[in-house]
Amino acid sequence: MCFSHIKQLWRGKKGCSKLRFINLSGSQYLMSTPDFTGVPDLLVLVLQGCTSLMEVHPSLGHLKKLCHLNMEYCKSIESLPPFTTSESLKYLKLSLCSGLKKFPEMEGNMKSLRELYLDGTSIEELPPSIERLTGLTMLDLTDCKNLLHLPNTIGCLTSLKSLYLTGCSKIEEMPENLNGMKCLEKLTIDGTSIRELSSIVGMKNLKNLSCGRCKCLVSESFKGLALLSNLIELDLSYCNLMDGAILNDLSSLISLELLDLSGNCFVRLPESISQFSKLTTLILSDCRQLQLLPKKLPLSLRDVFAQDCTSLTDYPNQIKVLNSWESGVTIVNSLNSPAQVSEISRMLIFPRNEGESIAMRVTYEHAEGKQVDPLPLTTLQCLKEKEVVLSLSLSSFVFYVAVVRHYRTFCR
């Protein structure tokens, strides 16, 4: 009954003991849900996009066998009944329920719940009873702009692997006791007002930490990150980072593979960056005051993105810079030895004007010096040559380091 015009599914109690699935997604005129008492074996309820839905019958919280509830974009819903006996519920999606200001109490056993989506809602707080969700592996609170804080009981979510707080601009601090969240692997706090990161140092299994646009972070808080030895990806973009000891404090992150420092205010990167022995991707885009790159970069480094680094003038010694010409590209060749051609990355610097799109035609040149006529950019998807020199008419600086075998990705 997707995209139906019904306003009410049925009135009063209706005995449908064999009913397992109800899908009313896109039913824009549905204003209330029925009494579910007569459908005790209901497994899946989909109300996604029921934009006029305002009332949910209390019996919803008593469906013992319900395992999947999707109410995404039910924007008129302001409250939900308590989940009293929802012991089988595994998936609860309330994304973009912009009218929802309060998340209900969880009064019963909800250890089966694995994924909870509250992104884009208007909730101001989470109930302390969230500690009952001990089986929860993913909690999405992205763009909950009215959320003021997280309850201390969130530290009881011992199975949580992913926590998304991006865009929760009113959150200023993380709860103190988070040592119980030993399974947490991904934490995003982009765009929050969080000032300290000290409470996350106990998250020993954290692999992905994103702090982009956290402009309130104090520099002292970065020291604790050095204890996150399993961290693989770290985003510190647009955090107002200045020259200092920030990266020196992070040199013990021996597992780090991706580091995003875009949009910061430092003039140079410290030599200690060479200690990131597993670093494969370094993002420096829009670091407009950056003038110097370290003399030594990690040998593992494959990709460097430095678009709009307009002050960058000095490069590592092992990189050979060829002068650019009016119509073309400056090529920075990072090859140390011809014998390593098949394994070593290349760095290309494209001059680019703001707003100008990538040219759809390129010329390429074989390593032996054979010139080839211009061809469409899409043709590069099929190229398998180990040494290819691209010539593009672009603008400000775009750095792209890529192993030639990755050109397929670059051209898409």
Automatic annotation (TrEMBL):
What is the organism of origin for this protein? Answer: Rosa chinensis
Going by the entry's taxonomy, the superkingdom of the source organism is recorded as Eukaryota
The UniProt record lists the Disease resistance R13L4/SHOC-2-like LRR domain at: 54-166
Q: Which PANTHER family match?
A: C-JID DOMAIN-CONTAINING PROTEIN, LEUCINE-RICH REPEAT-CONTAINING PROTEIN 57
Which keywords are on file for this protein? Leucine-rich repeat, Repeat
Pfam families linked to this entry:
LRR_1, LRR_14
Q: What is this protein called?
A: Putative leucine-rich repeat domain, L domain-containing protein
Its taxonomic placement starts with: Eukaryota, Viridiplantae, Streptophyta, Embryophyta, Tracheophyta
Q: Read off the Gene3D superfamilies from this record.
A: Ribonuclease Inhibitor (3.80.10.10)
